[in-house]
Design brief:
binds ligand BJW, 250 residues, alpha/beta, Rossmann fold, six-stranded parallel sheet, three-stranded antiparallel sheet
């Protein structure tokens, strides 16, 4: 797809929103969920990513998260994450909403990230609801227990059938209702309510920019569809945008 019309749009836009999914971290070596090599090809979501699975077999679920923490902890952000961290400083209003739990946006320098599905580096006490940071790889105790009350800890993530944080979700919907352009990057756009955010943005008049090697249910709503890896396409867009932005200021 031609980059020029998008650059024109970005040069005339102040309110930009971004929704990311597992695909943005794929080039770091972190498996996505769906598609070739995806986590859900090898594991059944019902056995690992539901409250029932956790109550029936907390050890199994924790072993899976421990394994994933091992992978994620050894990875660094890629150029796609880095561009988004830069854009936070470039656009007068910039919101980054992610479905990812890997914390790589923050690691690349993004400071205001709305994490819809939680964060793998946080624990939540199943009794008191207290949230704590933990970066141990591997975990010291399996399953981990709350230091304050001894109850079972769980990963501070959102499983199927669980509600997202109403505060975070409300902020995400406000963002999509008020942006002028929304980038949708590396998501299969099938998991709700996250997948509704770009539709809401489109209904409110925002231009939708999709970056994904494959088409998704969102593709027919997109004004710009870039087929490829976000770690390559975002830097290409940014390079041209930065050049034209500087030129316009001179
Ligand atoms: C690249 C690339 C590269 C590759 N560059 N791109 C309405 C209708 C129908 C169902 C529901 C509904 N509302 C709620 C539901 C139920 C359910 C749901 O949506 N189910 C659908 C699957 C049908 N939703 C929920 O249960 C949610 N809760 C909720 O809504 O509560 C209220 C409620 C409950 C029940 C009924 C009704 C209301 C909670 C959803 C929680 C999702 N949790 C997970 C696990 C998080 C923790 C963990 O990681 O362990 O979140 S599942 C998994 O999917 C994870 C992801 O964040 C999420 C989205 O996946 P994502 O990011 O899109 O990844 P992939 O793998 O699917 O796609 C990767 C993409 O990248 C692909 O397109 C590639 O092509 C691309 N790609 N390389 C760019 N280099």
């Amino acid at each position: 797809m031609e980059i020029e019309p998008l650059i024109e749009l970005l040069l005339n836009t102040t309110r930009v929103a971004v929704l990311t999914g597992a695909g943005i971290s794929a080039e770091c070596g972190i498996p996505t969920f769906r598609g070739e090599g995806g986590l859900w090809k090898k594991h059944r979501p019902e056995e690992l990513a539901t409250p029932t699975a956790f109550s029936q077999n907390p050890n199994l679920v924790w072993e899976w998260y421990d394994w994933r923490r091992g992978i994620i902890g050894s990875k660094d952000p890629n150029p796609g994450h880095e561009v988004l961290a830069q854009w936070e400083k470039v656009f007068p209003s910039f919101s980054l909403v992610t479905q990812n739990i890997d914390g790589l946006h923050q690691k690349s320098g993004s400071t205001k990230v709305l994490e819809l599905h939680g964060n793998i580096w946080k624990f939540r006490c199943t009794e008191e609801g207290t949230i704590t940071d933990n970066h141990d790889v591997p975990l010291k105790k399996m399953p981990p227990l709350c230091e304050a009350c001894g109850a079972l800890l769980r990963p501070h993530v959102v499983w199927f059938g669980e509600s997202l944080s109403p505060t975070i979700l409300q902020k995400a919907f406000l963002t999509s209702a008020s942006c002028e352009a929304m980038f949708v990057i590396g998501t299969s756009a099938v998991v709700q309510p996250a997948a509704s955010l770009p539709l809401q943005a489109a209904n409110a008049g925002a231009k939708i920019v999709e970056i994904n090697p494959d088409p998704t249910p969102l593709t027919s709503y997109a004004d710009f569809s870039f087929r490829g890896k976000s770690g390559e396409i975002l830097p290409a867009i940014d390079k041209e945008f930065s050049r034209r932005f500087k030129e316009a200021k001179e």
